Amino acid sequence: MRIHALSTGTVRLKDAFLHARTGPTRQLRLFTPGSFSDPVPIHVWVVEHEGQRILVDTGEIAAANDVPFAHFDVPVDQELPGALAGVGVDVGDVDQVVLTHMHGDHMDGAVHLRQPVLVHDQELAFAHTLSSRFFQRVLRQPIPAGVDFTPLALDAGPFGAFAASRPLTADNRVVAVATPGHTPGHISVICVDDDGRHVMLAGDASDTLAQLRARRPDAIAPKAKVFVQTLDRILAHGREHPTVFLPSHDPDSAARLAQRELLS
After folding, report:
1. Are 232 and 215 in contact (CB under 8 A)?
2. 193, part of any domain
3. CA nearest 159: which of 196, 189, 181?
4. DSSP assignment string, 42-58
5. What is the tens place of the pLDDT at every residue in 172-203?
6. What SS3 class is residue 71?
7. For residue 52, what are the β-bridge partners?
8. Structural domain containing residue 227
9. Which residue of 102, 189, 213, 263 pairs with 201 in a disulfide if CB–CB is 3.0 to 4.6 A?
10. Tell me, what CATH number does 71's domain have?
């Protein structure tokens, strides 16, 4: 098994996003003036295993609109086709595509693909609710047109500490697991590498490893309690299995992957 960390540009995130307060202003502060981080990566991942190439998330595009809490910098040559070319992969070489969740910086690059894009069925339903459609319009972050978003049911029961899962390969070494919080249908993908380590491609289950260890909710999650419960599941999984934790926007994720640095 080989896992590649690729980046489709960068994003600067508001401090209120990265270090959310508790209480009623947790989400409101996203829309008030505040400082921003240095640029952080917008990671996508390619898993090569048993003759298959599995793409986890599709990254952002150059035409992305900034939002009050996220400012994007995506050169055209760093969109998905350019990112894949960096490891010698063409968009047509991808056998399977799965999204951790349906936010623009994880799904917009799907416009470059012609194959189905797997999305947790609960996430797909949430993305089409009235509240989601309202924010997609207000933030100018629409669901990309012309993409075959295909529902994925997590119907295979628990996997480690996670309550629901679905294998993505016949040998059960690449598995989608439920990690709700950032969005209600958020998932992560766990790859069991050749040495038995669980490499967790975590999307926005947390923004950084530090946030996971601090058990700190983000400002996006509809329910902060659910977000923290998922962090606790990840930590519990790491105590039972050698786990490499790789959030999409953590500047250290690529290095942790290369070094196979474990949670514990």
Report:
1. yes
2. yes
3. 189
4. EEEEEEEETTEEEEE--
5. 999 999 999 999 999 999 999 999 999 999 99
6. strand
7. 49
8. 2-259
9. 189
10. 3.60.15.10
